[in-house]
Amino acid sequence: MRIGIIGAGNIGGNLTRRLRSLGHEVKVANSRGPATLADLATETGALAVEVREAVKDVEIVIVTIPQKNIPDLPSDLFAQVPSNVVVIDTGNYYPRERDGAIAAIEDGMPESQWVSEHLGRPVVKVFNGIYAQHLLDRYQPKGTPGRIALPVAGDDPTAKATVLALVDELGFDPVDAGELKDSWRQQPGTPVYGADLDAEGVRRALLEAPRERPENFKAER
Ligand SMILES: NC(=O)c1ccc[n+]([C@@H]2O[C@H](COP(=O)([O-])OP(=O)(O)OC[C@H]3O[C@@H](n4cnc5c(N)ncnc54)[C@H](OP(=O)(O)O)[C@@H]3O)[C@@H](O)[C@H]2O)c1
């Protein structure tokens, strides 16, 4: 597939590596410009581009930047992007360590709904709860006992089907985690988050998630 990745850090870099090794065409962008991505481009064969170029002529866009930087993206970034292009959000809200307080999320809005509102596009939430390094060294063939499963939340069934298939191709069991409004079940501090569970474990953990955001994942008052 043709995939654009916005963010080339821990997650964006490793998704670039894995997606390229699976033969996908990848364009990757960061905030400082393509010249700063020369090493990643040389290593992987991905095309380093400006942010606006990463959303052009692709089938999937992966947004993988810190939550606090989402409002820095151009407000019209997706204006010309066809509605059938799938947009993935890998993000997490870390008010204490990184992002500062975001009122709507503090008030209970799921993190990816907030991202979706800012981008002006539906998003599919996935990859937010797996350590970046595990994307590189813990993938396994379908059918392997204990294969790590990843929850996938989103509203559009076609977009979600594309992402479920991509997760499987990357070496993880995809688990349909419902709609974006349900995606608080996979946010930081929930039982599924960072737990590397198998599919059955992910389903159980999603069900067991408490609605209230854990205190240490709220902004300090
Ligand atoms: N690290 C993990 O294991 C992990 C796991 C799951 C999910 N996540 C989540 O995934 C997201 C990305 O995490 P990460 O660890 O990969 O972050 P990271 O290593 O800090 O990298 C952030 C990337 O975002 C880019 N960026 C920031 N602002 C941008 C902008 N306005 N336009 C374009 N690019 C921009 C940065 O580019 P510059 O360097 O040029 O500024 C950098 O390439 C976060 O929400 C994080 O919570 C992380």
What's a quick, concise take on this entry?
With 221 residues, this protein is an alpha/beta fold. The protein contains 9 helices and 8 strands. The strands form 2 sheets. The chain has a 6-stranded parallel sheet, sandwiched between helices.
Annotate the secondary structure layout.
Layout: E1 2-6, H1 10-21, E2 25-29, H2 38-44, E3 47-48, H3 51-54, E4 60-63, E5 86-89, H4 95-99, H5 103-106, H6 111-119, E6 124-125, H7 132-137, E7 149-152, H8 157-169, E8 173-176, H9 199-208
The chain binds NADP nicotinamide-adenine-dinucleotide phosphate (NAP).
Structure notes:
- By secondary structure, this protein is of the alpha/beta class.
- Helices cover 32% and strands 14% of the residues.
- The chain contains nine helices and eight strands.
- The chain has a six-stranded parallel beta sheet, sandwiched between helices.
- 43% of the residues are buried.
- Bound molecules: NADP nicotinamide-adenine-dinucleotide phosphate.
- NADP nicotinamide-adenine-dinucleotide phosphate binds next to helix 1.
Instruction: List the secondary-structure elements in sequence, H or E.
Output: EHEHEHEEHHHEHEHEH
Amino- and carboxy-terminal Cα gap? 45 Å
Which runs of at least 5 residues are low in confidence (pLDDT < 50)? Answer: none
Overall strand count: 8
Bound ligands: NADP nicotinamide-adenine-dinucleotide phosphate
Radius of gyration: 16 Å
Biggest sheet overview: 6 strands, parallel
Q: Give the DSSP E fraction (strand runs of 2 or more residues).
A: 5-15%
Widest sheet: strand order? 3-2-1-4-5-6
Helical run tally: 9
Based on Cα principal axes, name the global outline: globular
Mean pLDDT score: 98
Helicity, in percent? 25-40%
Output the structural class: alpha/beta
